[in-house]
Amino acid sequence: MIKLKFIFNSILFIGIFLFQLNLNAQTNPLEIKIDVNEELGLMNPIWAWWGYDEPNYTYMKDGKKLLSEISSLSPVPVFVRTHSLLVTGEETHALKWGSTNAYTEDKNGKAIYDWTIVDKIFDTYIERGMKPMAQIGFMPEALSSKPTPYRHYWKPGAAYEDIYTGWAYPPNDYKKWAELVFQWVKHSIDRYGKEEVESWYWELWNEPNIGYWQGTTEEYIKLYDYTADAVKRALPTAKIGGPEVTGPAWEKSEEFLRTFLNHVKSGKNYVTNKIGSPLDFITFHAKGSPKVVDGFVQMDMGTQLRDISKGFEIIASYPEFKNLPIIIGESDPEGCAACSEADYPYNAYRNGTMYASYTAASFSRKYELADHYGVNLLGAVTWGFEFENQPWYAGFRDMATNGVDKPVLNVFRMFGMMGGKRIKVNQENLSYNYLQVRDHSVRGKNPDINALASKKEHSISVLVWNYHDKNDLNMPSASIKIMIENIPSEKIVLRHYRIDQEFSNSYSAWKHMGSPQNPTENQIENLEKAGQLQLYSSPEWKQIKDGQTNIEMGLPRQAVSLITLEW
């Protein structure tokens, strides 16, 4: 009996001890320390760039609505990149397909230029204060060296290689191609004015190191020389760049990028016979690689960051190019925006808060990697727009579904409220820094809880996330204490915005409605309200003592908060 009592008391003691440990873990918050005086440099709006495959969605009902919202969330002009601006077809469109019919030929082979649809697309941007990142591609049917078959009819679930038809081939006449480019730039100047077109970025093709280009590396370089020469002949001050390779961390992609840069630096130009080619900015793509593990979506941010890191490393190795602007032409958690959740279960992250927390965490690391390599990161294009006439919350990589914003768009609203100068976040007590996430992703027991901070003349902003590669929302909330020093005011107004399962989340609201595929007008109105960025609590005036303040909060898994201090 004495032994049993001893065992019972021992178990009770251990239980109380473990309970107290757990209680201490909950009551001792994770500290995020920020010194307002530790400036890192300008917080360039690298997030204010979007792109998509289907150009004709631009001027459709939900496309126009989303572009208006994207424009309104940004304090600077948003750049938009889209495929297929030179593809043959009378506005034919589908998933991963679009057309403008900009170039055809008569029976004698004489060029016919028709800019009606291209103008329709660019007008939609310009009217909203946005700017084109004008992608020169793809090959018109009359110029394709292998025009048959020309159009693809790909659908989710089909082989991705099915899309690489006649539009992906080199031209049958490089001089005709160059004249097409020349006429396009000249037309743009006539329509929008020289000063406006000077502010655009013209770039050639998309991912020429894989199936999007059915020619050789040397043929792409030849096409670049003809294209760059045509752009500069039309407008010497225009900005032209490339090569939009994907996956710089892949050996063959690195080889393609270096071959291109070597040619631009010291190769013989196909058009001028002189050494070198014009290059005003450099582009490449970076993607993650999610999968389903034990019933949960498991992201792979590390793969995306390693692509970015390698791209920066390659560019930084060229003294001639190190200071050129870099645009990550597509920067996403994976590769196929038009691949729905139904056909690709690992894309289940897209509707809810996981896409939001991934976006917050990954963009912060893009800034840090650019600092690490000392390169000039100008933009990182989010390849996610909207898909017309698709089921509600079908799990495409988009910012909105049927005109209703998804949680991820609210991260960009948060970015839009930041700016000025980035300030340092002390990461000594945090589980992951940018190099650890790059090298190992977020696979350990602890989540990635971290912050991105900035300051303007009369405000400080702190973006905080609770991210993990495993999408398990049943994990307990994190207790966080944000400690800010050297605030240059004695009184501030604090605002706290939140994206989680309750706030700024149309997907949760839709599920609470029973996931209707034919929502009523009242339900759609409620979904639209739920899709907007929401305050977590009422604005609060706070007294600041000795330039310091502490902000404590609980942050659920895959949630994002923005704290703003204004005076």
Q: In CATH terms, what is the architecture of the largest domain?
A: Alpha-Beta Barrel
Question: Could you tell me the mean pLDDT?
Answer: 95
What's the β-strand tally? 25
DSSP helix fraction: 25-40%
CATH topology of the largest domain: TIM Barrel
The proportion of residues in beta strands is: 15-25%
Query: What characteristic shape results from the CA principal axes?
Result: globular
Q: What is the CATH superfamily of the largest domain?
A: Glycosidases
Query: Could you tell me the radius of gyration in angstroms?
Result: 25 Å
Q: Identify low-pLDDT runs.
A: 1-26
Total of helices: 13
Q: Look at the structure and give the CATH class of the largest domain.
A: Alpha Beta
Give the termini separation. Answer: 69 Å
Organism: Mariniflexile soesokkakense
Pfam family, one: Glyco_hydro_39
Protein name: Beta-xylosidase
Family: Belongs to the glycosyl hydrolase 39 family.
Concise account of the structure shown:
The protein contains 13 helices and 25 strands. It has 567 residues and is an alpha/beta fold.
